[in-house]
Amino acid sequence: MANMKNAVIAFLVPLPSIFFYLTFLNHCDSEISNGVDPKFQSFWSTLWAWCYHHPLLLANALFFLNVNVLFWVIGQIQSSHWMIDPYWTVIPVMLVHYYATHPLAHYDWWRSRIVILLTWVWSIRLTHNYFRREKWQWGTREDWRFTDLSQQYGNQWWWVSFFAVYVSQQMFLIGLSLPLYAVHNVNQPLSIWDLVAIVVCLCGIVIAYFADTQLHDFVSRNNKLKGLGKPPVPVLDNGLWYYCRHPNYIGEQLWWWGLVVFAWSLGYGWTFFGALVNTMCLAYVTKLVEERMLKQESRAEAFRLYQKTTSVWVPWFKSSPSGVKNKNA
Hints:
Number of strands: 0
Shape: globular
Strand content: under 5%
Radius of gyration: 23 Å
């Protein structure tokens, strides 16, 4: 019952932004293209004109009201901030279609369709991985980092969560998706750099898919071993995880930096800032994940050896720690 309720909430929650934007598109032609005497402009005419001339501000306003405020209110009611995780995979798809359909959009048709297709492929892969990890349930748990923060802030978490969970996500997602805006703001023929960007994006998607699948299979095997009363394997140390400790993060970063290549080739190199901040954030998350692994007594020794022999991010061959023979789990 709870699973169905959360699924319905998740499907209904973006409708305010969708309906507002469709209403804007329906009215903007008559209100703006035909022209209205400023002395007789209504509130709605002024609003539609603002939406027309400020596509980036409109995207931020809709995100703030529909995600930050509405998601936060629902999170307070449910005592769980689970919904931002599945929507992390959906919001970029909504943004790319928003930028492509805004009346001020100006772009090369082929580049637009390529980027939209790539964004859908990325989203489907990440959404599938999320629900596979959650055993196809809606809202059964929130991100463990949010749970840790709630314990850290105690009674203050109800208002801190608004900024830590939602406002921070707006800065990340809007910033990371700026290349999608750049692609739909310049009408320039395809070039060799578009091919480079496509290759980088696809490599990121493929690497992340195989890394997450290998991690899922590893966790599933360990759960079966626990069910049989056998000790689980402490560390995943094969496949892509043989060459670096966080190949899933590498894949995700390649995806976003691939989008930056699209934007850079169109003269929007400044959009790299979102990908850079995301890389810095993943570096911090890497630290948190590894500290969490070391706190688990059954894994600590094996993971320390894994740290000594295996690269953090950049895939590379294993090294042998001094005095300890290389071990493969």
